[in-house]
């Protein structure tokens, strides 16, 4: 297991899964999305959960990890942070094509709308 943590900060449909595959091929143990991160209202409890979770992993990627970049940096200031960015117009088209009107509880909590299709402006704002 690597002592160097890596956090992939990118929203869905920005190439995070491809980067996960690359990290795994380099020997990193990569943890995916974790909806439990969204349940913590107390920052200290959130940090304890992150620390406990990351004991067994070298890297993390997928939603909602990017939303907690400040906490991740406070816990792991020497970690590598990889920002995955995609042109917003191409990103929202991909999101709508992939998720359309599917109700995904994690997305509902992040974007505060029922689904992507018809709420593109809200997704882009977030």
Write the layout of secondary structure elements.
Elements: E1 6-9, H1 16-25, E2 30-31, H2 43-54, E3 59-60, H3 69-75, E4 80-83, H4 88-99, H5 105-111, H6 120-125
Parallel strand pairs: 1-3, 1-4, 2-3
Structure, explained:
- The protein is an alpha/beta fold and 126 residues long.
- It folds into two domains: 6-83, no CATH class; 88-125, no CATH class.
- It is 43% helix and 10% strand.
- It has helices at residues 16-25, 43-54, 69-75, 88-99, 105-111, 120-125; strands at 6-9, 30-31, 59-60, 80-83.
- A four-stranded parallel sheet has the order 2-3-1-4, with helices on one face.
- Helix 2 links the parallel strand 2 and strand 3 (59-60).
- The protein is globular.
- The model has no long low-confidence stretch (mean pLDDT 94).
How does the helix and strand content classify structurally? alpha/beta
Structurally, the number of domains stands at 2
Encode the helix/strand succession as letters. Answer: EHEHEHEHHH
Percent of residues in helical segments?
40-55%
Largest sheet: 4 strands, parallel
Query: How many DSSP-defined strands?
Result: 4
Runs in which pLDDT lies below 50 for 5 or more consecutive residues are none
Q: β content, as a range? A: 5-15%
**Shape call:** globular
Distance between the termini: 34 Å
Mean pLDDT metric: 94
Strand order of the largest sheet: 2-3-1-4
Radius of gyration: 15 Å
Number of helices: 6
